[in-house]
Every structure is written in structure tokens, then in C-alpha cells.
Amino acid sequence: MIVLKHADLIKQMTLEEKAHLLSGRDFWQTQSVRRLSIENMTLSDGPHGIRKQEGAGDQLGLNGSVPATCYPTAATMANSWDPELGEELGRHLGKEAAAQDVCVLLGPGLNIKRSPFCGRNFEYFSEDPYLAGKMAAGYIRGIQANGVSACPKHFAANNTELRRMASNSVVDERTLREIYLTNFEIAVREGHPKSIMSSYNMVNGVYANENAHLLQEILRDTWGFDGFVVSDWGANNDFTEGVRAGSHLEMPSTGGDGPRQLMKAVADGKIKEDEIDVRVDELLDVMLSTRAAVDPLKGTGFDKDEHHEFAQKASEQSIVLLKNEDNILPLKKGSKVAVIGEFAQKARYQGAGSSVVNCTKLDNTMDVIGNFDLEVVGFEAGYPRHGDPDPEMQRKAAELAKMADYVLLYIGLDEISESEGLDRSTLALPKCQTELLTEVVKANPNVIVVMSAGSSVEMPWIDQVKGLVHGYLCGQAGAGAVLKVILGEVNPSGKLSESYPFKYEDCSSAPYFPAKERSVEYREGLYVGYRYYDTAKIPVLFPFGFGLSYTAFDYSDIKADDKKVSFTLKNTGDRDGAEVAQLYVHAVNPSVYRPNKELKGFQKVFLKAGESKTVTIPLDDKAFRYWNSKTNRFEIDGGEYELLVGASSEDIRLKASVQVQGSGAPACEDREKLKSYWNCDIKAVSDLEFGELLGHRIPDGKWSGMIQANDAIAQLYYAKALKARFVWKIMTAMLNKSIEKGEPDLNITFIYNMPIRAIGKMAGGMVSQEMCDGILDIINGHGIALLKGLGKIIGGFFKQMGVSKKQKALE
Ligand code: BGC
């Protein structure tokens, strides 16, 4: 028998009130039940600043949002390898959220960077689940410190933007558990979030928001999650199935359509009211506690200057120095520099999409460089923000470069190159920038590149430049942080949280990304990022975990057992600095295929010049485990393991061997049948092998060409009705136009990837599911079907009007 915490309250609620509580009141707020003093909560994006919309919400930012601090994005912060810094950032976010009466902050985002092409990588931490999980847990603890609820997202296996609302992630259970869930497991177990966001996609054939395996068995029963699950905006496929599986809140409002379906399901005996009570109880628990915490804080404001300063500090700790030939950096005080690059004039400091923050202020390099001890000979933009190379701009830049001793060249990805709703199609920087680089280097060989980009890029030009400072997307105060690094006021200590391949084709997922039809097949299995490059011995431009410092560190005296590793770390240079020491584990004789080494611990250690410290990294429950598909749980192979301590995934400085007691599980893999995996030859995994890895037949991802409720609008290209194809044509033209303009139009990318059923979910109650069915009939049919479709739309419209009115009356 389940004991409800809020049984008294729930007893007094009608079924209608309960059903409505489980669905949003509008774009950002939950319902309230005023007669029982149940007040609504506001949810806001996230993740690196608060995006609370003024006036009517529309998710996609048509209405401006209240000014808030724009902190470095997750991809940037992960390079700090400092969960405590993440926690501090979380505390700042939590403070701003509460001050704006936001009860639930929609972040952090922690999906794994399976492919560098995922358009949303800038919002995610890492290609490694351990690092991503630890950083996310830090953020969550910080956000929740004052009682606001964090909402880690997007749970789970949501690693692509293309047709993100309509795709099916086909991934074997072991890969799912070890790579795509371990990050969430750490975040949940160590951060204790009060809510979590289910993703748009299906996972192995079941929508994440109605996936009981994910939401109930794993999240709640195994990890002990006791908060509520909110659907990503429009991700609720079947309301009743969602509630049954463990989802609590449909967002945004469907104008009462979802609750109507739920009540009907109760009447039809498809779900029991008791089951609904459990969800209501779990949701209420967070609503009540969060409201109680936020009420006294709302309207209290926050110290904008202090938050700006913290944003700068966070950025300072995350900047990665990737190249420093001839120790060109740090520059001496008073150095004569030419500043070149449009990004120095107008910073590229955050990504595009639902995470866009209306920042309280913005430091552009050219605005703040006067505060630094540099002799600036001038500035040239050098390239148009978006578009073709401009020879005249290049000429002027080269002229300027000749007048200085050093060139600070600000380049990177432009706004359209990485965005929510749009995957990338190249790792290259825009041509207008690379051509400029060549011209500038000809004029002055002392070029230091300052890079702004939220995910990895290829750098065929790297040999031409002497320095490379990567600021990632460093938030509203990043410009000063970068200049401090350039002048040595800050000793860089960031290390890459993702690998930089020489070229896209080197990535393990390249043959399988993007998904061609319905299925996104994770055929590369566990070989994601460095797990692949390292095992397959594919050279990379910059390895995972890499980053330079102005000082040097020496590693010695390793001691290890199966519980911990300790060693001495010494700063052997003449500057204070911090080192991220990394611990990787290599299984010597595994019973299952394994990447050569995997990150299982790390520590950021600050050392004064000449100082040394003993560093101890504990080995936790994740250090040796693997997912056993026979016993259906994590097991440990007994035997020898190598513990590798180093400064990056490639730069291992110390090694120790330990014997580990196994859990005695039966072997679960047939090596012969998984040869490609054992040999790490996963670029052309056969159907037979992938089926073997999955443990069942590969689901048929083929698409018949008939448009169904869960097909994306992008697929209207194949529709039977001429009008629907026309809609596709217009949408595609609009999308291409926005790409040409260089400004991602999230409304278009969003609608483009949206399935037909989501029209109902996103239209704020204007369109019911019945009306969506009508639209489908029209898309697919002629004659009778067309008439039937129109009938459904008109009938559904009047019914929905009644439901919406009732919903308003409830408030
Ligand atoms: C995004 C979420 C975001 C939500 C609300 C969705 O499209 O995937 O990350 O929190 O919109 O803006």
C-alpha cells in the first residue's frame, strides 16, 4: 500500500482538479487549486541564466525575458572540471530564480555529446558521463540550496536535434546504462533534484515521457528519485500513458485537452484514480515545499554586479589554453597588440534556442580592453559575422596586423552554426574566418587565436598560429576573463571536456548520424568520444582532458588499492596554478568488451609555485562496474585493473595495478558474435552484430511515406495532399532563409522538427488531439478522407472550446 504524504489534501480534490494539476496552466506555469491553497509554480529556462518571459509566454522567446545574468554555458563550465564551482554557479542561478518567483529552473542539461554535430552540445557538459554527472550534481545542489527546484534534462538518450520530437533512439541496455544514464544517475543520486525533464524522443520504441523502464524502474525505484517528472515542452505523447509510467506534469498547457483525456481514461477503466493520486501526491510535495521556500524570496532582487563578477570568475576557471608555441603567452604588460575579429566587437557568448538569456550587461572585448595593460594599435572586424569572405575587410585587417607585435584574433562559430533545433553539418569554421586567418598570419606570424564556440571544431590551420585560447561560450563577463588569461593575471586551468578530432569522419558515430528515417541507431555502442579514439588509436587534434597551463606539474609516488588512489602532485614552475588530475581505469582481462580506459575520478588541485600535495582520489561504485545483460544489473569482473593517473586522456603519468574482487556474475557476451565491438571496429557494424548487442531484432526504422501523428512536419515533403507539400515548401524556404541570415529562428526550427500530434500539445489549447487527427486525414487523403478530416477539425474545435472554458473556470 502506498502511503500518500498529502492524503488529506488529495481527498478533498475532485478528479477534475487532479487531472488539471498534472497539466500546465499556460506556457510556464502549473495549475493552482486556490480553494485548497495550492498555488501555482512558474518554471523557466535555464540552464545558464534565467529566462523568465515577460507577459504572455511563448517558449520560443517572441516576448522578451526579464534581464538576468548570463553565465558561461555548460560546455564551458565542464572545462573547469570543478563541481564546486558548478555548485557556486547553481547558487547564483537559484538566487536569481527565487528573486524572479521562479520555482523550477529548467536545467542543467546533461545529455552526452555523442556526436560533435549535435546542435545543442553547447548546452551540455561532456562526452563523458562521469564528468557530466558530477558537474550536473554540483549545479543541482547549488540551485536547490535556497529551495528552488532544479530540473536536469533531457532524460534520456536525446543526442540529436534533427526530428528530435519524432525519433526513436535505439540503444542497447548496456550502452544506455553505462553511457547515457550514468550521467543522470550521478546527478540524481548526488544532486537530489526535485524534478527532471523527460526528453522528446522515444527510447527503444517508447516515448521517454511514457517510458516506465526509465521513469519508474530506473529513476524512481533504483536511483531513489522522489521529485516530479515534467515533459519537455510538447513531449507528452499520450497523457494517460505518461501518468501511468511516472510522468507528473505535461507542459505547456494543452488547454485542458490532456486532462480531458485522462478523465475519460478513468471513466473507461484504463487507469485507476489511485494511480493518479500517487502522481498528484508526488507533484504536490514539490509544489508545496518549493512555493514555501520561494515565497519569502520573491522580489528580493540580486546583486547584479556581484553576479556579473562571479560570471567572470566562472569563466576564468574554465578557459582552456590549447596552444602556446614559444611561450608566446602570457603577453608582457604593455605589449603592442592588434585586435582583429568581429567577435571582439560583439561577443559570441551564448548559444541559440530556449536557453537564450537577456543578460544584465555584456562585456565585449573592445569595451573592456582599455582596462588592461596592453597597447592596442587598433581594431578590425576582418570578416562579416555571417556570409562570404570579404577581401577588403581582410586587407584592412592584414594592414593592421603589420602595425603590432601580436595579433589577438577573435574567431569561432557564429550563431547559426550551433543552435537548438538544428544539427551542425560541418566541423569547419566559416570560410570568411579561415581565409582571414591565413591573410593575417602572412602579415604577422605572432597570432594568438581567441576562440568562441560551444562545441568542437576542426583546425586545419592550427600550425599557422602560435597561441590558442579557447573561451568556449563564456557568458556575459567572458571578455575580461580571456584578457586576464592573455596577460597571465589568471593562469589557465581548464581542460577539454570533449575530444577534438582532426576531422568529422574520425568520430565513431559519424556513419550513424544523423538518423536517416525513424530510428537513431547507437551502433557504436560504448565507443563515444575518447573511449573510441583511445581504443581504436585514432589520433586526435586535442584529446579529452587536455589543457595547458603557464606552470608545470609533476606527478609521483602513486599508491593504490581498490578503494582509492593517492599520489603526489607538485607545481614545478614559478607561477601558482591549478591542475586537473584525472583517473582512468583500464580493465586488464574483462569478460565484456570495454573501451581501453574510462574516466572514473578527477580532482582539481590548486598549488602555489613550488608547492606539492598528496592527492587522493576515491574509487567509487562506478570504478569497475559494467552492465551485465544476463543478470540485468551492474556487476564487477574479478581480476586485475590498471589505475592510470594523468593530465589528459592521452597524457598518463602514473600507473598502478590492483586486484579487484568480482561479483561472480555469469559471462553475458558471446565474443565471437560481437567481434566488431571487441576489436573496436565499429564503423560498419552489421545488422547481425547490432542485433546481438541489442539482444533482440533491430526495430524496423523504415518509413512508409504515410504521415502519422508522430511524424515531423519536415516529413510533409512526402505527403499525399498537395497543400501539405506546399506547407513543407514554405517551411523549408523559411528555414533556409533564416540560415542564410545567420540568425537561427527557433520558431521555424522548432516547428520543422515537430510531429503533427505536437501541434495539439503546443497550441495552448487551440488544437485538440482530435483536430490533429483531422489534420492528418487531410494530409494523407483525398476525397472522403479529406471531408472526414475537416469534420474532425471542426467538431474538435467546438469541443475544445468547451474544455478550455472549463479549464479557465477552474483556475
Ligand atoms: C527544450 C527544453 C526547454 C523547453 C522550454 C524545449 O524545446 O528542449 O530544453 O527547457 O523547450 O523552453
How much of the sequence lies in strands comes to: 15-25%
Shape: globular
Note the total helix count: 25
Strand order of the largest sheet: 9-14-13-12-10-11
Q: What is the helix fraction of residues, given as a range?
A: 25-40%
Distance between the termini: 32 Å
**What would the average pLDDT be, to the nearest integer?**
93
Radius of gyration: 27 Å
Q: Could you describe the largest sheet, including whether it forms a barrel?
A: 6 strands, mixed
Q: Which class do the helix and strand fractions yield?
A: alpha/beta
> Which ranges are low-confidence, i.e. pLDDT below 50, for 5 or more consecutive residues?
none
Write a short abstract of this structure.
With 811 residues, the protein is α/β, with parallel strands linked by helices. Helix content is 33%, strand content 17%. The longest helix has 28 residues, at 783-810.
List its salient traits.
25 helices; 6-stranded mixed sheet; 4-stranded mixed sheet; 26 strands; 811 residues; alpha/beta
Structure description:
The chain has a 6-stranded mixed beta sheet, with helices on both faces. A 4-stranded mixed beta sheet has the order 7-6-4-16, with no helix packed on it. It has a 4-stranded antiparallel beta sheet with strand order 21-20-25-26, with no helix packed on it. Helices cover 33% and strands 17% of the residues. The radius of gyration is 27 Å and the shape is globular. It has 25 helices and 26 strands. Helix 5 (129-144) packs parallel to helix 7 (182-191) and helix 24 (769-780) packs antiparallel against helix 25. The two termini are 32 Å apart. The longest helix is centred in the last third of the chain and has 28 residues, at 783-810. The model has no long low-confidence stretch (mean pLDDT 93). The chain is an alpha/beta fold. Strand 6 and strand 7 form a beta hairpin. The chain binds beta-D-glucopyranose. Beta-D-glucopyranose (BGC) binds next to loops.
